[in-house]
């Protein structure tokens, strides 16, 4: 099991890197298309091979290393986006932001500067913030989220439906997207309660002016259901697995 010293060394060596999972955009004028990917951290360990984030994100959060980890995820993603766009592949990227990362009022300025130094633009980024994370201290969170939004970053409320925000807070926060948690999506064909929650979330999101993404879509019937209900975008193994950057262009071409 990796410890804090291992993780520190991995960050110093550059062994933490983003994989990219495609997201299908359903409201694209010429039919479903992959316009966005979610960056998901992987640890390329010299001895143990690829380590999944479940094994090190909690460690990173409890040791403060989630800050440098997020920093390198954003920096590598920004360089990759700039490269893809130079090659004619027009993509945006979603990055997971832990609540501990967005505590300082100068973070929005520093993040935007990082992105621009890497040849990218904040508008190409969606920051995924968990509902419970965003709501912990709502006045302070509101201030920082507003600054991020003013810098041009798009904001997504991740894992929607599993947190404990009030709807008033969701309404006031400058989110652009609501991401329905995969626990409601996976079995929705068999579970009418899950479908009720999905339909209510889509309606709520749209009535608040947000686009709605569903994650955890593993089958065609689930994809079709969400499409019919007016979901704006779809993420899940049915659309594509998280892959290394080098594999993504081919995956996007196959899907279009
Ligand atoms: O990649 P995988 O599907 O195994 O991701 C597992 C969890 O780890 C997900 O909840 C995802 O949000 C989280 N995660 C992956 N990469 C990052 C990251 O760069 N930062 C943060 N904060 N969480 C991440
Ligand atoms: O919201 P969050 O960042 O936690 O979501 C990313 C996580 O969801 C990653 O662990 C990713 O590997 C996982 N994931 C992505 N697509 C699917 C899917 O279709 N089914 C399941 N079970 N997990 C998925
Ligand atoms: Mn996410
Ligand atoms: Na999620």
UniProtKB/TrEMBL annotation:
Signal sequence extent: none
UniProt keywords, alphabetically: Kinase, Phosphoprotein, Transferase
Any Gene Ontology biological process: phosphorelay signal transduction system
One MF term in the entry's GO annotations: cyclic-guanylate-specific phosphodiesterase activity
Residue ranges annotated for the EAL domain, each copy included: 1-256
Highest taxon in the source lineage: Bacteria
Protein name per Swiss-Prot or TrEMBL: Hisitidine kinase
Organism the protein comes from: Marichromatium purpuratum 984
């Amino acid at each position: 099991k990796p410890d804090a010293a291992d993780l520190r060394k991995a960050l110093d060596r550059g062994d933490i890197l983003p994989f990219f999972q495609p997201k299908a955009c359903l409201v694209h004028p010429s039919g479903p298309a992959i316009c966005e990917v979610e960056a998901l951290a992987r640890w390329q360990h010299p001895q143990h091979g690829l380590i999944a984030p479940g094994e090190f994100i909690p460690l990173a959060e409890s040791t403060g290393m989630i800050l440098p980890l997020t920093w390198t995820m954003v920096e590598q993603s920004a360089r990759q986006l700039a490269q893809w766009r130079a090659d004619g592949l027009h993509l945006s990227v979603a990055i997971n932001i832990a609540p501990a990362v967005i505590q300082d009022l100068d973070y929005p300025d520093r993040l935007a500067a990082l992105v621009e130094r890497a040849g990218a633009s904040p508008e190409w980024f969606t920051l995924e913030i968990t509902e419970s994370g965003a709501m912990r201290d709502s006045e302070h969170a509101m201030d920082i989220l507003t600054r991020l939004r003013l810098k041009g970053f798009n904001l997504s409320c991740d894992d929607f439906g599993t947190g404990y925000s009030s709807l008033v807070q969701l309404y006031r926060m400058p989110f652009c997207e609501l991401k329905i948690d995969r626990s409601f999506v996976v079995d929705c064909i068999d579970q009418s309660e899950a479908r009720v929650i999905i339909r209510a979330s889509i309606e709520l999101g749209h009535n608040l002016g947000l686009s709605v993404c569903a994650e955890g879509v593993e089958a065609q019937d689930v994809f079709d259901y969400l499409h019919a209900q007016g979901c704006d975008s779809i993420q899940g193994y049915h659309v594509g697995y998280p892959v290394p950057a080098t594999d993504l262009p081919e995956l996007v071409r196959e899907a279009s």
